[in-house]
Amino acid sequence: MSTNPIKIDAIINGETYRTEKQEPRENPAHPDEIVGYAPINTMEDTIKAIDVAHETFTTWRETPIDERVERMRSAIQKIKNNTPEIAELLSREHGKALYDSEGEIGVSLMWMEYACDNVKEVLKDEVQDHDNGKTILAKDAIGVVSAITPWNYPISLSTIKVAPALLAGNTMVLKPSPLAPLAVSKVIELIANEFPPGVLNMVHGEAEVGVELTSNPKVAKIAFTGGTETAKHIMKSAADTIKHMTLELGGNDAAIVLSDFDVNDDRAMRRLVISNFLTAGQICMIAKRIYVDQSIYEQFVEKYIEAANKWIRVGDPFDKNVTVGPVNNQKQVKYVQSLIDDAEGNGAKVVKLGKILDQNLFEQGYFMQPTVVLGADQKDPIVVEEQFGPTVPILPFENDKHAIKLANDSIFGLTSSVWGKEEHAIEVSKHIQAGTTMINTAAVQGLDVRFPFGGVKQSGMGREYGKEGILAYTDTHVINVPENLDLPYIPE
Ligand code: NAD
């Protein structure tokens, strides 16, 4: 494993570009190790990248779809060939366990392949013959897409945008998060190299670059994944030039455990634990509040703690026994700890879960011991806010109606899950306000790239994945060919 700090570049018009200003990115498991440096691009760099994408759009949108698919398929092959090194780099800069990094790349490839396999069918003209001639519904590319992505799943949340946007004939400027920019930059470079210069560009930086990407008049669409507060800034920034938008935002996903859930079903309990603590809880669609029918609450808590103690093994992301790595950054550790402290201060009981495999390492890095919080109130910040870390509150409910009320009592509506007998769980799921509800599983375990994903309420707008995730990068262009060309009510 190479431990020399790596440097990454911006990509503008097919050329790599190294800036003067560079930000170090430390390894969250060993914060004294610098994994690499991310460039900080200027506003001028960003404008240049947008200009290039804008100029390239005219030719790229006319490029035959077979050629676009062929180029994307060779990019997929390049990523496959480089997966071990990319996964290793992702674990070093992000902190997620190696199996988790490999899983993220696997999902990215699955989606890119789905997009290649389906784009021709999804984008083909729909011709409708009717009583007044015919109408063709064509799917046009939109233009320059600004893609802005977060640190928690940097590769999958970038490729989820890059693949459909480019396949549909758009050009793009992508900005990854400065908190995990290294592995995703390698992936973007591999993809960009398979396309004509200017089709896929990448700049780095924080809000200054982000504001240009979301306000520049040459940008036609914003594809953003990140926090709800950032999305509010983006909507304001984009308002003057009325941009198309897909927003994938925060979640505070409820898991409802019904009275007929079998607390002795070890596999189901393991799935629930994973859906709380995978990637140290730093997933938008992780189950962040568990509501349990009061008739089984006591037994549930006992069995849940037992299952969590078995599955959670905290340590170095490269240790094969480790299931939970460190939190990505110190700011996040402090935030999650403040929610736990607040709940404890209000009288809740905090139970530590799992094993710490290396106490020395644990004390050096941005590690947190996973916890479950018992006795919190529905109004406590640990229940109301998106924790985005390795802790979860468990609360009892009186009956199904009460559970639905508690689950819907949130500004968010990304995913949710219902656990119990299938029919009963499906019935309850229909009353939950969420983009996706999973039955007897949750989080990425229930994700299927063939179907649309996205949030309701303040968890976002628009959908990624599935056919909708490709159509999101098109406008419907109606070509009307009427038989009766003159309107009868207009006087001669
Ligand atoms: P964030 O909102 O802080 O940052 C996301 C991106 O926006 C980064 O690239 C950041 O540099 C950029 N940015 C910051 N200020 C900006 C501005 N003013 N204009 C334009 N861009 C700006 O989010 P984060 O901390 O990186 O990620 C965590 C959040 O993302 C959580 O809320 C999580 O739930 C959410 N998320 C949602 C999904 C989903 O699919 N719904 C998936 C993953 C993460």
Automatic annotation (TrEMBL):
Active-site positions on this chain: 248
Segments of skewed composition (Basic and acidic residues): 17-33
Start and end residues of each stretch annotated as Disordered: 14-33
Domain Aldehyde dehydrogenase: 22-478
Name of the protein: Aldehyde dehydrogenase family protein
Family: Belongs to the aldehyde dehydrogenase family.
A Pfam family that the UniProt record links to this protein: Aldedh
CDD domains for this protein: ALDH_AldA-AAD23400
